[in-house]
Amino acid sequence: MKIIIYGINYSPELTGIGKYTGEMGSWLAQQGHDVHVVTAMPYYPEWEVHEKYKGKKWHTEVIDGARVHRIPLYVPKEVSSAKRIIHEFTFILGLLPVWFSFLFKKKADVVFCIAPPFHLGFFPLIYSKLRGVPMVSHVQDLQVDAAKELGMIKNKTFLNIMFSLERFLLKKSAKVSTISLGMQQKIASKGIKAENQILFPNWVDENNIKPLPKEQSLRAEFGISNTDKVILYSGNLGEKQGLETIIETAVHYKDRNDVYFLIVGSGGAKEKLEQMVKDAALTQVKFYPLQPYEKLSALLATADAHLVLQKKSAADLVMPSKLTGILAAGGCSIVTAEPGTSLYHVIHEYNMGILTEPESATALKNSIDLAINSDLEVYKTNARKYAEMMLSKENILKDFENNLLSLN
């Protein structure tokens, strides 16, 4: 097949949506498909264009057999709701010449469009209708719902317009895919029937991300002994997670020199978190940059417990992408999730982590106390088994490929 993939994030971004879209594009190209990706300059989660791409304009490169068409865009240093909207619209306007060129090239067999941003779908949809090509809309985050629930956008008229546009795009798509049962239910509430949906969960390469002993972790590199207790948060430092709770909780361990909180990643909330640590004079909270993919197993092996945090209002609107790697590495997660959400259900049903109340430093402290004073082997064993059984990269992408083939 000739497949056109639209998404604002792509490889070589190390985390979030770009990681999964990049792996998908490479995998499809390796199966012999003619893959074209329309994407931005890599910038996430640092919110800064990667050094290699600074100053570049529209250009095409080949990554693992996929032809990647890069588009320049505005990337704000400090992220706000208004600046993020401008950021997304500069990308959408910038893709016009690339989109136009596709109209006069060999017709694609399928167009795959990834949200967020949800409004990216309009150009692919027009191409779909003009060329008679099925379009699949893939929802990684329910962006408009999250913006409403998190209070990022408060203008009701604007929100209603966005919800209407989102429903229009979803209903005009041949299929709508998303990453969890909870998100499928949310999409169904927007008028998309079950037979028009595809479950396409995030995956993990369980052969590359695997359990390692502490001796092969990054503890020595970080100056931490193997007898110390390590609580790790790794990934995007954004607004959806409620990461202030980590610092509020760490204050309770201020007098313990054997408990460390590691925050590995970057994002819009990093400076705020660093200031909180400074104001509280916390010496056992350490910040590190994102680690390269080849060190991911070693990073994950550094932790006694992993933090998978979300705000209450983000329940079933986003699914933490970091969880797949933690499970594959046989890690024990402390997960903030409420009963009734997909995240709570899967952790509880397979007994592979400690569930705790979102946005509560007290509840998080109790869960950390439980983790550092308990034998966590049952959770860790179950986590690895679940990754092998349910999250295998090869199995998930093969099923997805079959879904694309069935559209033609």
From TrEMBL:
<protein>
    <submittedName>
        <fullName>Colanic acid biosynthesis glycosyltransferase WcaI</fullName>
    </submittedName>
</protein>
<keyword id="KW-0808">Transferase</keyword>
<dbReference type="Pfam" id="PF00534">
    <property type="entry name" value="Glycos_transf_1"/>
</dbReference>
<dbReference type="GO" id="GO:0016758">
    <property type="term" value="F:hexosyltransferase activity"/>
</dbReference>
<dbReference type="Pfam" id="PF13579">
    <property type="entry name" value="Glyco_trans_4_4"/>
</dbReference>
<dbReference type="InterPro" id="IPR050194">
    <property type="entry name" value="Glycosyltransferase_grp1"/>
</dbReference>
<dbReference type="InterPro" id="IPR001296">
    <property type="entry name" value="Glyco_trans_1"/>
</dbReference>
<feature type="domain" description="Glycosyl transferase family 1">
    <location>
        <begin position="217"/>
        <end position="384"/>
    </location>
</feature>
<feature type="domain" description="Glycosyltransferase subfamily 4-like N-terminal">
    <location>
        <begin position="15"/>
        <end position="203"/>
    </location>
</feature>
<dbReference type="InterPro" id="IPR028098">
    <property type="entry name" value="Glyco_trans_4-like_N"/>
</dbReference>
